[in-house]
Amino acid sequence: MHLDIAVLEGDGIGPEVVAQSIKCLRSVEETFGHSFTFKNGLIGASAIKKTGNPLPKETLKLCKSTDATLFGALGLPEFDDNPKAKVWPEQGLLKLRKKLELFANIRPVKVFPSLVKQSPLSKTQVQNTDLIIFRELSGGIYYGDKSNDEDKNSATDTCTYTESEISRIAHLAFKSARSRKKKVTLVDKANVLETSRLWRRVVRNISESYPDVVLNCLFIDNAAVQMILNPSQFDVILTDNMFGDILSDQGSVIAGSIGLLPSASVGLEHAMFEPIHGSYPNAAGKNIANPVASILSVAMLLQHFKMNEESDAVVAAVLKSFSKKIVTPDILGSSKYGTNYVGDFIADNIMELDGSFNINDENIGLGKSTII
Ligand SMILES: NC(=O)c1ccc[n+]([C@@H]2O[C@H](COP(=O)([O-])OP(=O)(O)OC[C@H]3O[C@@H](n4cnc5c(N)ncnc54)[C@H](O)[C@@H]3O)[C@@H](O)[C@H]2O)c1
Ligand SMILES: CC(C)[C@H](C(=O)O)[C@@H](O)C(=O)O
Ligand SMILES: [Mg+2]
C-alpha cells in the first residue's frame, strides 16, 4: 500500500518522538513491502516563530491532501506563561482538529502485563485495565464563544453541543463496545450542566439501537475516583472534549507513564495520530522522552488503514522492548537508554509475526473495529 503522511513534529519533544515513529514506519515499509512518503509541516510555537501563525495555510493544505497526519506535540512555556499573547501554539492544534473535522479522539488505556509494576497504584488495582476513551474532539467548551474583558476583570468560555455532534461519536463508541466487553460508560456532569443533560438524552436514545451493549452514566467527579479505585470495571468511556482530556491524562497514571499512551483522532475524511502527552519542554533535546506513545500512535495509524498485521508487528516490537527493559527513564528510573536507542530497538525488531505472539492478550486495547 502507498500512503502519503503529513508529519507535524511541533515543539519540545515532538520532533524527537516523531523521529522514532518514522523509523518504525520505514521498518514497516521494508518488512511488509509498502511505500510511505513523509511531508513535513509547521505547527505550534515553531510555526509562530517562523510565520506568526500557529497553523500556517500550507500545513492545513498538506494535512487535507495527504492520507493521514502524524502529529508530535506542541506548546512552550513562553506562551503558557504569557496570558497577553495574541496567538499561542495550542490554537494551531485546535484549528487543525476543527478544520479536518476530527470529531472523535480515541485513547486506549491498557496496562501491559510486563509494566504492571510501573503504576503507582497497586498491581491488583490496575492489572486488568483495558479501557478505551472516546473523547469528543471538535466541540464543547474548547470551541464555544469566548471573551476576555480586561477592564472588567471578567472572562467567558461557553460550552455548546448539538445532538448531531453527540450522536456521531456515540455511534462510534457503541460500535467499539460491540467488539469489546459490550459496555459503554457515559461520563458527564448532568447534575449541573445542560450540555451533559443533552448528552444523556441523546446517548440513551442511541443505546436503544445497541441492545447488546450496556450503558451506564457516571458523573465526572465520581468517574475520576472510580477510574483509580477500579479501572477494570470500564470498557468504553464516552465523554465530551474537556472531560476526555482530563480523564485520559489520569489514565496514564494507571498505565504507568503518560509517555505510553497513543491516540487516534478521526473524522469522516481525515485522521491524525498523536500521543496524548504534551511537548514536555524540560526534556527537549535531552534524549529522555519516551517515544512509545508516538510509536503506538503509528500502530493505530496502520490499523486505521487495515494493516492489522503491520500494526501487530509494531506492538510486538514495543512489547519486546518492555520485556528486555529497553525503556526510557520514566519507565525505569535507572535506565541508561534514551529516546533514540529505544526507537532504534523497536524499529529494528519490527518483523512478520509467527503464530507464537498472541496479540489478543497483548494488544494496545484497540479492538479491530474501533476506527472508522
Ligand atoms: N497534544 C499536545 O500537543 C499537548 C498535550 C498536552 C499538553 N501540551 C502542551 O505541552 C506543554 C507542556 O504541558 P504539560 O507539562 O502540562 O504536559 P506534558 O504532557 O508535556 O508533560 C507533563 C509531564 O508528563 C511527563 N511526560 C510527558 N511526555 C512524556 C514522554 N514522552 N516521556 C516521558 N515523560 C513524559 C513528564 O513527566 C512531564 O513533566 C504545554 O505547552 C501544553 O499546552 C500539548
Ligand atoms: C494542547 C491541548 C490543546 C490538547 C487538548 O486539550 O486537547 C492536549 O491537552 C491533548 O490532550 O491533546
Ligand atoms: Mg491533554
TrEMBL record:
Keywords: Amino-acid biosynthesis, Branched-chain amino acid biosynthesis, Leucine biosynthesis, Magnesium, Manganese, Metal-binding, NAD, Oxidoreductase. One of its GO terms (biological process) is L-leucine biosynthetic process. The keyword Protein biosynthesis does not apply. Pathway: Amino-acid biosynthesis; L-leucine biosynthesis; L-leucine from 3-methyl-2-oxobutanoate: step 3/4. InterPro entries: IsoCit/isopropylmalate_DH_CS, IsoPropMal-DH-like_dom, Isopropylmalate_DH. Binds 1 Mg(2+) or Mn(2+) ion per subunit. Its EC number is 1.1.1.85. SMART domains: Iso_dh. One of its GO terms (cellular component) is cytosol. It catalyses: (2R,3S)-3-isopropylmalate + NAD(+) = 4-methyl-2-oxopentanoate + CO2 + NADH. The keyword Methyltransferase does not apply. Its cofactor is Mg(2+); Mn(2+). One of its GO terms (molecular function) is magnesium ion binding. Pfam families: Iso_dh. Residues 4-346 form the Isopropylmalate dehydrogenase-like domain. It comes from the Bacteria. Belongs to the isocitrate and isopropylmalate dehydrogenases family. LeuB type 1 subfamily. NCBIfam families: leuB. Homodimer. Catalyzes the oxidation of 3-carboxy-2-hydroxy-4-methylpentanoate (3-isopropylmalate) to 3-carboxy-4-methyl-2-oxopentanoate. The product decarboxylates to 4-methyl-2 oxopentanoate. This is 3-isopropylmalate dehydrogenase. The gene is leuB.
